[in-house]
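User: We ran a pulldown and think these components assemble together. Before we commit to crystallization trials, I'd like a predicted model of the whole complex to look at. Sequences follow.
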Amino acid sequence: MDLLERFSAGDLEAFEALFRRFEGDVYQWILRVVRDRATAEELTVETFWRIYRARSRFDPARDFGPWCRRIATNVALGHLKSLRWQPAAPAKRRVEAPAAATEPPRDPDPRIEQAFRRLPVRLQLTATLALIEEKPYQEIADALGTSIGTVKSRVFRSIRLLRKYLRRLGIEP
Amino acid sequence: MKQTDDQRMRDLLKSAFPPLGDTEPSRELWPRVRRRVEGASLRLPWFDWALVALLPAWCVAFPKAVLFLLYQM
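Assistant: Here's a predicted model for the assembly, 246 residues in total across the polymer chains.
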C-alpha cells in the first residue's frame, strides 16, 4: 500500500510523512495570504487538522499537493472573513523583507493597506496572490477551485475597486 | 495604457506589502497537529452523546423495550 493509500486509511505515520513533505508549502502559501507569521503557523496546524479529518474523502489516485493547497486556501479565506467582524486592531509587525533587498526600506502609506483591506475577501485573496505575489493565474485558479476566467475577472474587479477606494482616501493610483 | 495602469497598481500594492521571502515556521508544528488528531479521536461526536442520553429516557418511557434492546445486544 502506498503512502497516500495509507493516509487515506487513517495511518498516522503516513500522515506525518505527508505533513513533513508539504508543511513548508502550506505554510508559505498561507503566509502569503495572511502576511503574519504567528497566524500562518496557527492556520497551518488548522489546515493539516482539516486534511486529516477529510482523509476518507481523498482519492489516493490524485495529487496530494493541489488538494492540500485548496484546503489551505479555504482556511486562509475563513481567517480573512473572520477578520471582517473584528474591530480594527493596531497593525501587527509584518514579516521583514529579505536582507538582500536593494532599495532602502520606505514606510508604506497605511492608506493603501486600508483600501486593500476594504476589498471583499475573495477579491482580497485573489489580488494578494495575483498582484502582490504574482502567482500564475492557473495556480491561483487551482488553489481556489475555480477557472482562470474567474481569477482574471476577480483581478479586474479588485483593481477597479481599489482605484475607487484609493481615490476616496486621496491617493491617485 | 491599461497595462501601465495595472502595473502602477501592482507597484503601489507591493510598496504597501513588501515581499516576504522564503521563511519557515519558527517552531515545530507537528506536535500540535498530532495533539489535535489524538485529542479528536478520544472525543465522542455530539450525536453519540445524544444517543447515550436518549437511551435511559427511552427505557423509562417504554419498559418493554428493554427486552427488545437486550435481544438486539
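The first helix of chain A runs from residue 3 to 8. That may be worth checking against your pulldown data before setting up trials.

User: Thanks, that helps.
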